[in-house]
């Protein structure tokens, strides 16, 4: 059994202190300032720091709004890779593994978890680089399946329900005006034509009051 | 192997058609009926808890709601010269599993097929001559005509409570409905759903161009409705969690909310879950004559022989063909000689964004309902005059308000934006997120001699049986139709006032790209003659009269309309034929 690994991050980062606007409206996400020690399920600390830095370059926090760091994307990816998805529980993994046209979908033998483990070896020390160097490094691996997954998982971690560990404080949904699983839009479907209608985002738990176990748990 | 007590009717597959057959036969006769389903049971009360995009639409609740790919999948190649590789993840195909099947997560689009579709070969030859038919085509008439289908369409629509606006009631054309549709005996059971903003922009634009917009007919109720079975469902709330989700309130017609309540009232129907059907067995070992039953493996790995008087094969397109091939029932299609029919005429949905557009105003596109929107039938097959066009038949342009969710739709940006990650991309993707929409096209996909299914020589399922192999590619007719559709889509988009337009990139080769969900058709097609079809017009196997085949596998090519409503319509027609004729005299119905 592996030694327990933790990712230590400043609480002021997760959730973000960033003030940003949504259709002209200002938001402030409250956050605690003390350091958080988050237990890791798949990555070791070094890997987690690299993934945190890389996803932050893919989806940076800037004047447009918060990014991968504030949304907790690395936590999301860590949980996914430790779960059935990351272990290929539902993928057809019978041999032979043959390469073919990309049109036929991913044909590799490695599970998403293994793809990360291999891919991260190419990014040793990535989190120590200047942002410009980091972008250069990512451009070098842009056409790999590892980067394809990294980008896709970054978007997933930005906009998933927070029960999966990403989209902390619903900041991803706030940023794009997605309200989450809203039970009824019946009174609004024929209204607001041409105007932004932005109900306050709410998570599945906030809406239903039911603690749902996500598939990775 | 243990032999179980015999049953009157054995239905393989607990999806839309299998459960509808169970309901019809079970509520109208005293026959003992057993439905076998590979997946688990589902409880619609759980559906509100499943309104989570990641586990729902993205991971698809693999193994619970959709087929567990680790156990079985299909292989794909585009031509004889390519090596077929397994579809290792769900994406191209989203086969349902569990009671209700894909009917639980379907999109609920419910157009009738156009009258000409049922006679596609003879009508095309009549209009344009046999010389215009694309090379290597294998289209043929279905053996049933629209006029015979109409009363059954009416019953299927009443069952589901389809919301829509009629455009042709007994020959009287009605503005606001689809004036090009086949005649209908009456208005839709419920009025159309409300048209959200983006679709209404599309509707205004096409109207100003002289086309005839109409609200898409949907199996999601616009208002509360009680069907002839006494099953009541509420109206849609436009929450947008439809495609890849069970409807949290049952406004969408889904087998668990529509058919199970009736099935549960009838003690002569039972459903066994966790059942993996292995083979269909005939009475004589030489493969001749009637079916005597099937073998299956249950969840504990034990094997059983289940005898039955009547067997209904309703295991979805791929498994219908595969089970017949594995069981040696009927002659497999031979692409070199053209002989044999099992596996022939494989087709799929032919649909794409004719124009991706970015509008100048926010669209509030989280509001919606999977199939809700506006369509035009002006270019549909049989409506469009193909005399001076480089292709035959046609399709529909439409705009939908499916209820967009962010993981699947975030990140698409106009061509002027550089890159697919980083600050510039992020800014554009965030700023434009709620401004994007698609002018969609759904077209007809011809059947071709070179598109078919057979058993894969290499890859096996979890029990060691060969996977089904799909050999399928687009033809030039589809490629040219796609060019026409993209030009029309861009024209409409400009009139809609789109700020940015990305026209369709053109049709290359058939691909397994994830997020391109498709429905397959063919493999056990219906037809007028045993020489060119697997089942007769009552969906009865030509050589085994006590075997009926239901579902997308019987459809001989892919018309514009999605198949589900027509499959339910054909199922009701078969149920009537079984009850009124077959049970009195069990033999060939045609």
The number of distinct β-strands of chain B equals 24
Give unreliable regions of chain B as ranges: none
pLDDT averaged residue by residue of chain B: 96
Name the helicity range of chain B. Answer: 10-25%
| Rounded mean pLDDT score of chain A | 89
**CATH superfamily of the largest domain in chain B, called what?**
FAD/NAD(P)-binding domain
The CATH class label of the largest domain in chain B is: Alpha Beta
The rounded Rg of chain B comes to: 23 Å
Description:
The complex is a heterodimer of chains A (217) and B (590). Chain A is of the alpha+beta class and 217 residues long. Chain A has helices at 45-58, 68-71, 73-82, 112-121, 131-140, 145-159, 171-176, 204-208, and strands at residues 5-10, 19-22, 25-28, 35-40. Chain A has one domain (5-208). In chain A, strand 2 and strand 3 form a beta hairpin. The longest helix of chain A has 15 residues, at 145-159. Chain A is globular, with a radius of gyration of 19 Å. The relative contact order of chain A is 0.15. The model of chain A is unreliable at 16-29 (pLDDT under 50). Chain B has 590 residues and is an alpha/beta fold. Chain B has 2 domains: 1-161 and 253-349 and 446-473 and 509-590, FAD/NAD(P)-binding domain, CATH 3.50.50.60; 172-241 and 351-444 and 481-508. Chain B has helices at residues 16-28, 54-58, 120-128, 146-160, 197-208, 255-258, 260-264, 316-327, 406-409, 423-431, 476-495, 564-582, and strands spanning 2-3, 7-12, 33-37, 74-77, 85-86, 168-169, 172-173, 213-215, 225-226, 232-233, 269-273, 276-282, 291-297, 303-313, 344-348, 350-358, 373-376, 395-400, 436-443, 452-460, 466-471, 500-503, 520-523, 547-549. The radius of gyration of chain B is 23 Å and the shape is globular.
Could you outline the blueprint of secondary structure elements for this entry?
The complex is a heterodimer of chains A (217) and B (590).
Chain A: E1 5-10, E2 19-22, E3 25-28, E4 35-40, H1 45-58, H2 68-71, H3 73-82, H4 112-121, H5 131-140, H6 145-159, H7 171-176, H8 204-208
Chain B: E1 2-3, E2 7-12, H1 16-28, E3 33-37, H2 54-58, E4 74-77, E5 85-86, H3 120-128, H4 146-160, E6 168-169, E7 172-173, H5 197-208, E8 213-215, E9 225-226, E10 232-233, H6 255-258, H7 260-264, E11 269-273, E12 276-282, E13 291-297, E14 303-313, H8 316-327, E15 344-348, E16 350-358, E17 373-376, E18 395-400, H9 406-409, H10 423-431, E19 436-443, E20 452-460, E21 466-471, H11 476-495, E22 500-503, E23 520-523, E24 547-549, H12 564-582
Parallel strand pairs in B: 1-14, 2-3, 2-14, 3-11, 4-21, 14-24
Antiparallel strand pairs in B: 4-5, 6-7, 8-17, 9-10, 12-13, 13-14, 15-23, 16-19, 16-22, 17-18, 18-19, 20-21
Helix pairs in contact in B: 1-12, 4-12
């Amino acid at each position: 059994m592996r030694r327990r690994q933790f990712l230590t991050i400043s609480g002021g980062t997760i959730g973000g202190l960033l003030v940003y606007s949504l259709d002209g409206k200002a938001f402030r996400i409250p956050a605690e300032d003390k350091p958080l020690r988050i237990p890791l399920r798949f990555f070791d600390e070094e890997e987690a720091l690299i993934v945190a830095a890389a996803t932050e370059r893919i989806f940076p926090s800037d004047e447009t709004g918060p990014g991968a760091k504030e949304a907790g994307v690395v936590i999301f990816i860590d949980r996914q890779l430790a779960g059935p998805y990351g272990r290929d529980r539902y993928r057809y993994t019978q041999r032979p593994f043959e390469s073919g046209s990309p049109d036929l979908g991913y044909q590799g033998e490695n599970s998403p978890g293994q793809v990360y483990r291999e891919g991260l070896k190419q990014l040793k020390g990535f989190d120590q680089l200047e942002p410009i160097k980091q972008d250069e490094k990512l451009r070098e691996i842009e056409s790999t399946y590892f980067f394809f997954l990294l980008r896709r998982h970054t978007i997933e971690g930005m906009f998933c329900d927070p029960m999966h560990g990403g989209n902390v404080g619903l900041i991803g949904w706030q940023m794009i005006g997605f309200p989450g699983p809203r039970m009824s839009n019946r009174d609004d479907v024929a209204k607001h034509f041409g105007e932004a209608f932005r109900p306050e985002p709410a998570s599945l738990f906030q809406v239903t009051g039911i603690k749902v176990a996500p598939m990775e748990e | 192997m243990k032999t179980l007590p015999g049953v009157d009717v054995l239905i393989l597959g607990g999806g839309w058609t299998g459960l509808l057959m169970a309901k019809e036969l079970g509520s109208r006769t005293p026959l003992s009926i057993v439905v076998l389903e590979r997946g688990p049971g589902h409880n619609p009360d759980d559906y509100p808890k499943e309104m989570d995009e990641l586990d729902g639409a993205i991971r698809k609740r693999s193994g619970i709601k959709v087929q567990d790919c680790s156990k079985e999948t299909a292989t794909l190649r585009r031509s004889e010269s390519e090596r077929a590789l397994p579809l290792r993840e769900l994406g191209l195909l989203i086969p349902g599993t569990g009671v209700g099947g894909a009917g639980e997560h379907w999109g609920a689009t419910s157009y009738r097929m156009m009258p000409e579709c049922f006679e596609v070969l003879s009508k095309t030859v009549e209009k344009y001559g046999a010389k215009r038919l694309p090379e290597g085509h294998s289209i043929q008439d279905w053996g049933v005509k629209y006029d015979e289908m109409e009363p059954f369409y009416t019953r299927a629509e009443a069952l589901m409570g389809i919301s829509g606006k009629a455009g042709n009631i007994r020959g009287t054309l009605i503005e606001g409905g689809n004036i090009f549709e086949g005649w209908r005996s009456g208005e839709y059971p419920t009025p159309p759903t409300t048209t959200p903003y983006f679709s209404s922009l599309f509707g205004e634009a096409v109207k100003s161009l002289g086309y005839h917009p109409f609200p898409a007919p949907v199996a999601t109720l616009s208002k509360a409705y009680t069907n002839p079975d006494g099953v009541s469902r509420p109206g849609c709330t436009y929450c947008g969690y439809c495609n890849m989700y069970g409807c949290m309130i049952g406004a969408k017609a889904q087998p668990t909310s529509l058919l199970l309540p009736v099935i549960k009232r009838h003690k002569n129907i039972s459903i066994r879950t966790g059942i993996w059907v292995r083979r269909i067995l005939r009475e004589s070992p030489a493969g001749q004559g009637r079916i005597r039953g099937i073998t299956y493996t249950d969840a504990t790995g034990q094997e059983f022989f289940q005898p039955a008087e009547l067997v209904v094969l309703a295991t979805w397109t791929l498994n219908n063909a595969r089970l017949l091939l594995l069981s040696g029932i009927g002659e497999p299609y031979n692409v070199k000689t053209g002989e044999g029919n099992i596996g022939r005429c494989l087709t799929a949905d032919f649909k794409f964004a004719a124009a991706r557009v970015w509008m100048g105003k926010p669209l509030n596109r989280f509001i919606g309902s999977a199939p809700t929107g506006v369509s035009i039938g002006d270019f549909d097959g049989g409506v469009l005059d193909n005399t001076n066009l480089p292709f035959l038949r046609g399709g529909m342009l439409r705009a939908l308000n499916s209820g967009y969710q962010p993981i699947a739709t975030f990140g698409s940006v106009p061509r002027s934006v550089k890159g697919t990650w980083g600050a510039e991309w992020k800014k554009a993707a965030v700023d434009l997120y709620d401004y994007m929409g698609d002018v969609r096209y759904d077209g007809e996909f011809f059947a071709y001699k070179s598109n078919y299914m057979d058993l894969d020589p290499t890859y096996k399922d979890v029990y060691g049986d060969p996977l089904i192999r799909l050999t399928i590619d687009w033809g030039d007719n589809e490629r040219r139709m796609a060019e026409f559709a993209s030009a029309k889509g861009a024209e409409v988009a400009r009139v809609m006032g789109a700020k940015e337009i990305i026209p369709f990139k053109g049709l290359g080769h058939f691909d397994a790209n994830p997020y391109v969900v498709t429905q397959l058709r063919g493999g056990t097609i219906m037809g007028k003659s045993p020489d060119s079809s697997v089942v007769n017009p009552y969906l009865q196997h030509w050589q085994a009269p006590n075997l009926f085949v239901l579902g997308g596998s019987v459809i001989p090519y892919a018309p514009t309309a999605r198949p589900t409503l027509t499959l339910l319509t054909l199922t009701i027609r078969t149920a009537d034929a079984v009850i009124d004729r077959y049970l009195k005299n069990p033999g060939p119905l045609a």
